[in-house]
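Anyone opening a protein record will find just a pair of labelled lines. With that in mind, the following record should read easily:
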Amino acid sequence: MTEFRVPPYSAPSTSILVIDDHPVFQDGIAVILQALLTDVEIIPALNADTAIAHAKARPDLDWIFVDYQLPDSDGLSIIAQLNGLMVTAPIVMMSGVDELELVAKALQLGVSGFIHKSGGKQIFKDCLQAIEQGKVYLPADTQVRLEHYRQTIGKHTDAIKKQLSTRRMDVLLLVAEGYSNQEIASSLSISEATVKSHVSALMSILDADSRYHCVAEARKLGLIK
């Protein structure tokens, strides 16, 4: 009598974490990736908490695809958390919009690629191939627009920096920390009237209509963290 032997378990050769809160889109990505790669294991995560839990449990991940808009977080925050976990898998940001500020921030966080969610199989193929060749993937039109955006922002930022004295930067940093005018005056040993003058100047320079807007614009331009 021939003895029946169960073949040894062979784990899939490519494990991919897909972070997106739309099951239909999850299924669509799975179909595309399974067509492009061999022996694929798709690990779905519908929210940030599940995604981080999977990343902690699976240090062997080969790829991570993360949508920008999720119900409990955003893609940039998730990428920052993944960086904190020291994941080695390439991370690809997906979004329904390709706002250049978003793309620039994602690249600053070290993503390996950016894909517009309206793209099909060919975009995923191009992305995978570029990353496997050690490149960062961006759609061609996004690359052109991003370069122009960076040049424009760079010139704008340089012009603004010339108007920001050391004292104005001190005030800006404290405004960003949530200090009131009185607290800023006490911290910098200047009068409250002087603080108000600096805040007014900052709002004018940054074309802001509130303290919050002023801080947001400063962060957008990379003047403060």
Q: What stands out?
A: The longest helix spans residues 140-161. The mean pLDDT is 88. The radius of gyration is 23 Å.
